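Researcher: Structure for this, please.
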Amino acid sequence: MPCQGLAAAGTAKVRTARTVRMRIRLLPAGTGGQGSSNPLCPTEVSAGHSTMRRLAPSGGLCYSGSMRVPGIRILSLLVLAAAGAAGGADFVGPDSCKGCHPEAYDTWMKSKHARAESSLSEQQKKDGRCLSCHSPEQVTQATVSVSCETCHGGGQYYSPEYVMKDSELARLVGLVDPSEKQCRSCHDASSPSLRPFDFKESLKAIDHWSAERARRAADPSAKK
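Model: Predicted structure, token format:
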């Protein structure tokens, strides 16, 4: 179920200790209203010495659990969560990913995805139907083609390093693990080439994670 809104956002008091255990709950779409007694629709959620009050009743049940975060960042995380849950995060460009994911970036630069826009004819570059897959409209002219965020979602809220260090939080604020359905939204029978699409084989062809995992396994102190 896609995220549409945050069940709890805003803080009454922020703890300044190093870390707290924070619980964020999101609502099932269309569930309850302000003051609802529905257990999935709380009017407030506690996080250490902080209290977050629900501002909107709509949303998707995308996260319900605890995470450790620096206490002074609670407010910013809630703002990020609210924005990420609402959707529409801006693209920040592949160069923003390069610092922490150099192997993935290098692999992408050599891939057909990186050349997706340049593979179009001048006429096709003016056709929105072609650009919707070869260079999604959310990507600026400085970062045309199919880049990291085309598959993983706009990185405006999850790209900061302290967010990416917590996989649950990163997903909460917009990081996407691409599914076969998502890939087929472009690699399907409507493609001009009409090439059969094998999801598992295609994943092997764009493997941009194995080298990074190997590097991290060999050097535990490596930047993550």
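Researcher: Any notable elements?
Model: Residues 131 and 137 are 7 Å apart (CA to CA). The longest strand covers residues 19-25.
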